[in-house]
Design a protein that fits this description.
about 375 residues, mainly alpha, two-stranded antiparallel ribbon, 16 helices, about 70% helix
Length: about 375
């Protein structure tokens, strides 16, 4: 991964309005103090909701991940590469750019406050901090999106680790067919959007699509929050009841699906690698579920999955990935199908993109 001056970073950092620059410097100085103030103010609330332990551990985990990635990739900040982006605040190396620590902290209270009237406030706080970090020239857009992804992923991982196991209601096969058909459609649609964006804006197209997904996830969080607070609209009530599994909160699958897609855009820069990741997640995983539900042979890696489902994932992934990455598609399909079958405490919609990124970083 290399530093890349995308058009959105250039545009946001070129805004020289005195009030906006003043706001950016305000958040540069006070993001962390504000975070601790918000956290301490909500201490009792989180404890009453039984989310305090999960929140603390997830923030600590996100902190470790962010700073490990900083020193793994060692991407210099925009202001360190080009002095035109320096607005008087440019941390020197070894304080690297990717991912954004400020954004990670700013977004770390979003998930704990899902289902409360306070969620829109924390989403706004996250968006303001994200914007100001880019405006100051200390981060690329990709950096702030990565900070958000790491924060939400960490909370989800810790939450699933402590969550008590419940008997999962068995959804009908026809329900899964409809649900997985939507997954396939969304995967194909995203590939189409990425293709069009890349034809129009070339290498800049990827960041446009990533930003679209990022904003879409913020909107989806608001919709899910309203649904939990019984402010849902009839359209979303229909969509959630039609496509979401009953054992999860409304919109759970859709959100992790989008977050997984966004993860691939954040960590992969090659156009073809992103496409095959979308193929594995949007199409391979869907076929795995459709075929696997009718399978008879238990997968030795996971008692909840079948060999037929894993073979379906492997077959369709290698078939559709080959035109993009050639013979490497065999190893890619093999690695991601094994990871998808493992009994991990992370949603498959996130396991597959993580496996894809690890694969391409190594290979």
């Amino acid at each position: 991964m290399k530093p890349f001056f995308d058009v959105i970073t250039r545009f946001i950092s070129s805004i020289d309005n005195p009030l906006i620059i003043l706001l950016s410097k305000f958040f540069d100085l006070l993001t962390l103090p504000l975070f601790f103030i918000f956290f301490m103010a909500s201490f009792n609330f989180l404890r009453e909701k039984k989310r305090l332990k999960i929140t603390i551990i997830s923030i600590f985990l996100a902190f470790i991940i962010v700073f490990s990635l900083k020193y793994f990739f060692m991407i210099p900040r925009p202001c360190a590469i080009d002095d035109l982006y320096n607005k008087g605040i440019c941390p020197e190396e070894p304080d690297f750019s990717f991912p954004s620590g400020h954004t990670m902290f700013a977004s770390s209270l979003i998930a704990p406050f899902l289902g409360t009237i306070y969620l829109p406030f924390f989403i706004l706080f996250n968006l303001l901090v994200s914007f100001t970090r880019v405006n100051l020239g200390v981060h690329f857009v990709n950096d702030v999106i990565a900070g958000f992804v790491v924060s939400i992923f960490s909370y989800g991982l810790v939450y699933n680790f402590f969550k008590k196991k419940k008997d999962k209601p068995k959804n009908t096969y026809n329900f899964e067919i409809v649900r997985q058909a939507l997954h396939i459609f969304m995967g194909l649609f995203l590939i189409f959007i990425l293709f069009i964006a890349s034809q129009i804006w070339l290498i800049h197209g990827q960041i446009y699509v990533a930003l679209l997904i990022f904003i879409g996830l913020q909107v989806l969080l608001i919709i899910i929050n309203d649904f939990i607070l019984h402010k849902e609209k009839s359209l979303f009530t229909y969509l959630f009841s039609t496509f979401e599994r009953k054992q999860f909160i409304p919109g759970y699958g859709a959100f992790w699906y989008g977050l997984g897609m966004l993860f691939s855009f954040v960590f992969l820069t090659d156009y073809k690698e992103i496409i095959v990741t979308i193929i594995a997640l949007g199409i391979g995983d869907a076929y795995s579920t459709i075929i696997g539900r009718k399978g008879r042979f238990q997968n030795p890696l996971n008692s909840n999955k079948t060999l037929e489902g894993t073979l379906a994932f492997f077959s369709i992934t290698i078939l559709l990935s080959y035109p993009f990455i050639g013979p490497l598609a065999f190893l890619f399909a093999l690695f991601t199908s094994i990871c998808e079958a493992l009994p991990l405490k992370v949603d498959d919609n996130f396991v597959i993109p993580v496996a894809s990124v690890i694969f391409f970083l190594i290979i």
